[in-house]
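Researcher: Quick one. two chains, 226 residues in total.
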Amino acid sequence: QKEVEQDPGPLSVPEGAIVSLNCTYSNSAFQYFMWYRQYSRKGPELLMYTYSSGNKEDGRFTAQVDKSSKYISLFIRDSQPSDSATYLCAIANQAGTALIFGKGTTLSVSS
Amino acid sequence: GAGVSQSPSNKVTEKGKDVELRCDPISGHTALYWYRQSLGQGLEFLIYFQGNSAPDKSGLPSDRFSAERTGGSVSTLTIQRTQQEDSAVYLCASSLSGGRADTQYFGPGTRLTVL
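Model:
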């Protein structure tokens, strides 16, 4: 079992839709969870950062961590064509020396 | 301020040749990371530097891969005797001090194609 699993999609939605992106992980000791966004031919950029369980909101984006089920989610409200990108979940390893990434979900928002 | 920069942006080489990829981290960042992104495997960790030392090299896939960092700044990833399976995007990231809570900032990557 891989440490972080993510459905690669692709996911296509109309503008204005609510998008839900999800990952599962295997190690219950993980505590630092991130979502990165990557546009085509660019490096990943940090979108959201969550420590331990709970929700974090930033504008149209909400990150959610459920440690009991080892499940992390990113919700995008009122999705825009500019949200079209690949979304990568990432978890900091225990040693703090690396991020463990999911394979990424490619999202396309049509106008 | 300036972000993480990488050069070259694209590199095409022949199987068996050696290649060097360069990373310039954000000024003042002591931690530097190399990752590899390929279609089948996603984004995978290669090596972590703290200053000029590499306490975690666990992601390097073979002894053909090596990296160094000098002056606590620029890093070079070297791949010897390249193979077709080395074709990927090589991404460098830096963070202020390292550790689980530290934000990693990524460069645009070097796209390596081995013919």
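The interface with chain B takes residues 31-32, 36, 41-46, 49, 51, 88, 92-104 of chain A (CB under 8 Å).
Researcher: Thanks, that's what I needed.
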